[in-house]
């Protein structure tokens, strides 16, 4: 039999007993009192305690620590709503308990397509192999007419970015409609003579997103941005597995902070922004960087990146995009922390450059070149990068 | 101009300034430095601080309390993903902050259909006006063959329930397929000679749920159960507004505990299980009762019920279903706390009755009758209720 192993951080008089009670309660409901015939029927659906580990004792004398429970794969359909409902639906409401990890066997994950492009697929589209990619965020989108957004887009492309993403709060867009943006930016990209991926914010009724994505691609869209958590993981799975959707999907972490930051409740960041995003098929995943004001603890941010990229049979890796508070002086630290395969993603660090957004982009391009060549940023050419460093410094 | 007022519980050096910074940062991004022409363009999208209220000071000398921000309705499309992304997408990841309330004006809510049946619609379907309704939960579902589930269903109907719901973790159902259950239970209901609503667990790919619901109704389904949070609010909105889906929708709170229990993070229970469920169109909403082991603080449970039922122009009220830990001895307290318009929902309190599930149901029916007649439970007839009281007592 094949099991999904789930780890929780919780408190109980006795963690081992708690694991056993969850294993039974969250699967077949009750066990010891069942007649033998029923036990035989239900055996294949019974969860099993898979260990516990005390981390500390609370003031009330409770054990606090990790419990592990094995759920039979037979209890799930192959989708994330089934997974989350079964392992944390009711249990999430049962006192102090945080869902920290889910390990699915290949017999489960093989039913998910995972990222269609992954890191290599995105790199191939851009024809860039030897450095981190560089992405920019619009300064703002909502309420602006198309011509102003096209201007912003041009500045970003001129500055040398590889990817540009819409603002995730760009919903009503009458002044710069979805399909018109795609076409207008596509023209800018063509004029630039190189490939740039534009992640257009895919919004609307959840049941219309697949069709809207297909039409977007027909109009020339080459990347999609999705607020995965507000829409639900399942639509990401459907988009990623759809044969007509042949462009990378970028997952925005909007709402993730409603899940991960509490030590006692919710769902850990490496699971909700790492494993589940990858399983559901995000090619690129934004998550809070460990540096800026909207920050994650360093270890947690690195764990997200690990979950997105570690070897998993049948699943391509997703591109980690540590975001928020990124300026050119952080590029060496980003490379140290995330290696070659990450995306340098900046907003204020581009638009806030003293010489404007084109110089802002160029400063990052220079910082990435310097870092890849092993040159300390301060010693690079006297150009946009040095101006950026004067403003923001270099993070060591 | 029309605004959505959003309240957050947060900490900051200065809450008033925090409200202002959120109002600008989460709408147009920046303001004071913008040229006049751009201000004119963006004025209609600019958020406004709408007050703050200090509740305490933290050990670090920060102000802790409520901030209120008004977001222009013009910043939203009329759906809950847009609402949550805009008011709490990025902000959820910005330190200690909990989304506690959202007040939408009628100019926004009028674009939602809300509950199609509401309390009165459900009552009319059952032809019961003068008492709380009574619902039962299967003892367990997963892995059981249809004939055993039909037996469980019969016992529940014989016991006198008005509604029966599937187990929310009932996903793989090869031994008792979705459409077969609907037909088999429908027959039991018809044989009983009275109406009973059976909430069948609607599962599958999110984009297929509307079609599956329609087919279920064609097969005789008279109620649908949905794990709203794992699937995302938007599919609930779509089901509720669909003209062919003419049966009540019951929202299960699965995963809600990943959002509401932390004092510092997440989304408050009365918002996520109350207001948003109603706005999205749930006719019946399960939420943790203030009594059992899976318990909410009493005030919070009552606030959910208030959010589901208080007068709102253009929105029918949703039926409150305080759940978990309910036994017959709690019926008077349920009535005291939730009034006439609630649903007495029990699982263990029915199946655990010493004389079996039929007596278990009858005990509740008696408890409801006694309570409606003002008779103390202990003084009611010497039947199943008295046996239940001997086991579980009477809660005062």
The greatest interface between two protein chains, and residues involved on each side, is: A-B, 75 and 75 residues
Kindly give the count of domains of chain A: 2
Specify the CATH class of the largest domain in chain A: Alpha Beta
Oligomer: homodimer
How many angstroms separate the termini of chain A?
A: 50 Å
Q: State the major sheet of chain A.
A: 8 strands, parallel
Write down the secondary-structure element order of chain A. EHHEEHEHHEHEHEHEHHEEHEHEHEHHH
Number of helices of chain A: 16
| % residues in beta strands of chain A | 15-25%
Strand order of the largest sheet of chain A: 12-11-9-8-7-6-5-13
CATH architecture classification name of the largest domain in chain A: Alpha-Beta Barrel
- State the shape of chain A: globular
Which structural category fits the helices and strands of chain A? Answer: alpha/beta
Explained architecture:
The structure is a homodimer of 396-residue chains. By secondary structure, chain A is α/β, with parallel strands linked by helices. The first copy, chain A, folds into two domains: 3-109, RuBisCO large subunit, N-terminal domain (Alpha-Beta Plaits, 2-Layer Sandwich); 118-392, Alpha-Beta Barrel (TIM Barrel). Chain A contains 16 helices and 13 strands. The first copy, chain A, has helices at 15-25, 36-42, 80-88, 106-109, 118-126, 146-158, 178-192, 209-218, 228-231, 233-241, 269-280, 298-309, 331-338, 348-351, 357-373, 384-392, and strands at residues 3-12, 48-57, 63-72, 97-103, 133-137, 163-165, 197-201, 223-227, 249-252, 266-267, 284-288, 319-323, 343-346. In chain A, the strands form two sheets. Chain A has an eight-stranded parallel sheet, with helices on both faces. Chain A has a five-stranded mixed sheet with strand order 2-3-1-4-10. In chain A, helix 6 (146-158) links the parallel strand 5 (133-137) and strand 6. In chain A, helix 10 (233-241) runs parallel beside helix 11 (269-280) and helix 11 runs parallel beside helix 12. The mean pLDDT of chain A is 96. At the A-B interface, helix 3, helix 10 and strand 10 of A face helix 3, helix 10 and strand 10 of B.
